[in-house]
């Protein structure tokens, strides 16, 4: 599909989950959905396509609720966004919960230590990157302690060797280790971002000892990695990528770890499930991903939804 013909409109709402079945989107960035949709609207206008509406946080949450997505864990992983996630949780008690961290790609930018990665993008700094990584992480810790009812996880942390070059691998690993230590100190679950760094992430977890509840967000590993996760009792959270054509390893992994260790997420505004890949993702899209998970595991939609809900409660207490 050419860029010109790409659909920028919202995907249609999925069929609501069966009566009495509710789930939680365990990893999303709802605050980022709004500017993302605004950009989609601008592009659509430019191409003479139908106008794309822009919804606020309240509307996005009520659209999710209408299809059975009763809550979200909103992830703040850049210094200026930490309080945004906490504030959203304060404004929507029992519906929004926060996870906080300094993203692996952000960790190397703090103190201006970035290195270009295989993605070929230039390293760009924002004013808040003048803050050292240590001070940024101290803010994560402070907010988690001040708002214990709102902050239910440390994340997303981990490693990303696609965006960040090899020369900064050591910096990322140290930042990851600091997050592991914080999650253990606060007895909170930890959400892992792992891109092109499976081996490094696993080595670090095994060397330092993983937090009791360790979650691979938007799991991208293969069956072999799922076997390791199973041995260590780690959890896998599945995004729209579980529905993408080439991802048999991801689907196989869901079967390997079993229903007690799977969760569902959007990672919105990115990673929309098929057949809506490339459009703005939002929590209301979860039922599409659950349908792909059901197919991958041989469970019914209701069974897989209830399994993810049960696991989310066991891991985050929400």
- Give the number of DSSP strands: 8
Helix/strand structural class: alpha/beta
Unreliable stretches = none
What does the oligomeric state look like here? single chain
Q: Which series of helices and strands comes N to C? A: EHHEHEHHEHEHEHEHEHH
Residues in β-strands, percent:
5-15%
**Total of DSSP H or I helical runs spanning 4+ residues:** 11
Report the average pLDDT across residues.
96
Helix content: 40-55%
Distance between the ends = 41 Å
Topology:
Blueprint: E1 23-28, H1 30-46, H2 57-66, E2 69-76, H3 82-91, E3 96-100, H4 104-107, H5 133-146, E4 151-160, H6 169-186, E5 190-195, H7 198-208, E6 214-216, H8 223-232, E7 235-238, H9 248-257, E8 262-264, H10 286-297, H11 301-316
Parallel strand pairs: 1-2, 2-3, 3-4, 4-5, 5-6, 6-7, 7-8
Question: How does this model look, in words?
Answer:
- With 318 residues, this protein is α/β, with parallel strands linked by helices.
- Helices cover 42% and strands 14% of the residues.
- The chain is built from eleven helices and eight strands.
- The chain has helices spanning 30-46, 57-66, 82-91, 104-107, 133-146, 169-186, 198-208, 223-232, 248-257, 286-297, 301-316; strands spanning 23-28, 69-76, 96-100, 151-160, 190-195, 214-216, 235-238, 262-264.
- It has an eight-stranded parallel beta sheet with strand order 1-2-3-4-5-6-7-8.
- Helix 6 packs across helix 7.
- The longest helix is centred in the middle third of the chain and has 18 residues, at 169-186.
- The mean pLDDT is 96.
């Amino acid at each position: 599909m050419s860029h010109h013909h790409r659909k920028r409109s919202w995907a249609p709402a999925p069929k609501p989950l069966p009566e009495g079945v509710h789930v939680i989107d365990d990893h999303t960035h709802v605050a980022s959905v709004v500017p993302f949709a605004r950009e989609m609207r601008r592009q659509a206008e430019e191409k003479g396509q139908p106008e794309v509406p822009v919804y606020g946080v309240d509307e996005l949450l009520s659209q999710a609720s209408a299809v059975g997505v009763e809550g979200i864990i909103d992830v703040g992983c850049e210094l200026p966004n930490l309080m945004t996630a906490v504030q959203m949780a304060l404004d929507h008690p029992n519906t929004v919960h926060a996870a906080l961290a300094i993203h692996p790609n952000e960790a190397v930018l703090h103190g201006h230590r970035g290195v270009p990665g295989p993605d070929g993008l230039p390293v760009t700094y924002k004013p808040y990157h003048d803050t050292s990584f240590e001070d940024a992480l101290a803010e994560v810790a402070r907010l988690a302690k001040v708002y214990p009812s709102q902050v239910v996880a440390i994340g997303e942390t981990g490693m990303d060797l696609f965006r960040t070059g090899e020369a900064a691998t050591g910096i990322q690993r140290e930042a990851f280790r600091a997050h592991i230590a914080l999650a253990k100190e606060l007895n909170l679950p930890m959400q892992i971002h792992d891109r092109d760094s499976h081996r490094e992430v696993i080595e670090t977890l095994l060397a330092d000892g993983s937090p009791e509840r360790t979650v691979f967000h938007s799991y991208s590993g293969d069956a072999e990695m799922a076997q390791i996760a199973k041995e260590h009792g780690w959890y896998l959270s599945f995004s729209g990528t579980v529905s993408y054509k080439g991802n048999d390893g991801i689907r196989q992994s869901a079967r390997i770890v079993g229903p007690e260790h799977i969760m569902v997420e959007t990672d919105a505004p990115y990673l929309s499930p098929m057949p809506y890949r490339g459009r703005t993702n939002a929590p209301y899209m979860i039922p599409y991903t659950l349908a792909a998970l059901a197919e991958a595991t041989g469970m019914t939609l209701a069974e897989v939804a209830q399994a993810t809900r049960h696991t989310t409660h066991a891991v985050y207490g929400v």
